[in-house]
Structure formats: C-alpha cells, structure tokens
Amino acid sequence: MITTNQSQKRLEIIEVAAQEFAEKGFQTANINEIATKSGIGKGTIYLYFNTKKELYLATIQALVDQFNELSERLISMEISSSEKLALIIESFFELERERLPFLKLWARHQFHHDPVFPEEVSEIFNGLRQPLCEIIEQGVEKGVFFTSHPHVTGYIVLSMLVMLMPSLQLPNMVLFEREEERIPYVMELVNKVLHS
After folding, report:
1. How far apart are CA 52 and CA 21, in angstroms?
2. Ranges in the chain, pLDDT < 50
3. Which residues contact 185 (CB under 8 A, 6 or more apart)?
4. What pLDDT, on a 0 to 100 scale, did the predictor assign at position 175?
5. How is residue 112 annotated by DSSP?
6. What is the pLDDT of residue 113?
7. Which one of 114, 130, 138, 139 is CB 3.0 to 4.6 Å from 144, fit for a cystine?
8. Is 54 helix (H, G, I), strand (E, B) or coil?
C-alpha cells in the first residue's frame, strides 16, 4: 500500500522528470539528475519507477490527468459558453507560466508528432479532453456560437494559442511585445469567427 509520503514523493519525482524530459528529451534525460533534484538517490528512484520509460510514461499520464482536471473544473462551471471560452484561453496562457515543462511535452506530441514510444504515448493522450472543442460544441448547441465545424474550430483556436506562446516557438518568433495583448487578440478573432 502506498503511503501519503510515498505518493507525494512520486509526484515530486514526476515534476522534476517533466522538466528534465522537456529540456533534454527522453534519450538524453538523466535519471541521476532527476534523482538528485528530487532529493533521493538514483537507486531510490527505482522504488517508484522500474525504468526510465515507466517514469516518462507516468509523466505523460500526469500531464493528461492535470489537464483533464483543469478542463473539468472550467467546463462544469455555471457560466456562459463565451465566459468558459475566455477562461480556458486564459488558462492556456497561465499553463505557459506555471506548468511549462508539461506544456512542452504535450506540444511535442500534439504538434511536432515526434513522441518517443508513440503507441504508449498515443494511448495515454487518447484520454486527453479537448476543452476548446467541448466548449465550442456546447455553445453551438445553445445557439451562442455559430459554426458548422465546432470541433475543427476548437483545434484551430488551440493551434493559434500555441503559436502565440513564445516558449513553444523558435526564439526569434515573438509575435507580441506584451503578453497581456494575447488574450484580447485571441478573443477578438474567436468572437468574429463564432458570432458571425
């Protein structure tokens, strides 16, 4: 039986591993570094994860779980579809500040199509909710948004959000001088698409 302390340590290891995998990729990520930054010995890490691959897949699963939790919280709120859409867009940009390693791992799979362990990673990502698609579909059903392709529109908005995150782009691709300009810009475009 896993104790609360063990569960907490496991989460700490995953947090450190996410940073290591995001920065270096799976092949060059170092288990010794992950163990040291987690405050444990290399051998101890194997009490939590049998292999480096298992740790990587646990990190991907943690990413999906965290993202789904956020999605569920926002989608279930008793507010309008437009307000939900604004909140989820704002939340994506907050993820860039607060959960960047996880966001980089997600973007690598979602947009670069170059994951390690593609079958296992794809199976984990099959459980990932797509809140933009869900919110836009809800809005269409309620007559608030107008598009004949709500799912596609959700993915287009998602792609735009990723494009506006400097940390997920090439270093010279900064599209906005000030970060606070991004959300109003996205909302302006989204409103033009969904309300016309």
Report:
1. 10
2. none
3. 164, 176
4. 74
5. T
6. 66
7. 139
8. helix
As a whole number of angstroms, the distance between CA 172 and CA 139 comes to 36
Tokens of 151: 């799912």
Give every CB contact of residue 29 below 8 A, 6+ residues apart in sequence: 17, 20, 21, 23, 52, 56
Other beta carbons within 10 angstroms of residue 113's beta carbon come to 8
Q: Name the DSSP letter for residue 168.
A: G
What is the pLDDT, as a whole number, of residue 132?
A: 96
Residue with tokens 């362990």: 117
Domain 4-194 part of CATH 2.40.128.20 = no
Indicate the pTM of the whole model.
Answer: 0.89
Residue with tokens 């966001």: 103
All structural domains of the chain with their residue ranges: 4-194
How many Cβ atoms from other residues are within 10 Å of residue 155's Cβ?
15
CA distance 158 to 165: 11
Structure-token pair, residue 155: 């993915």
Tokens of 118: 């593609």
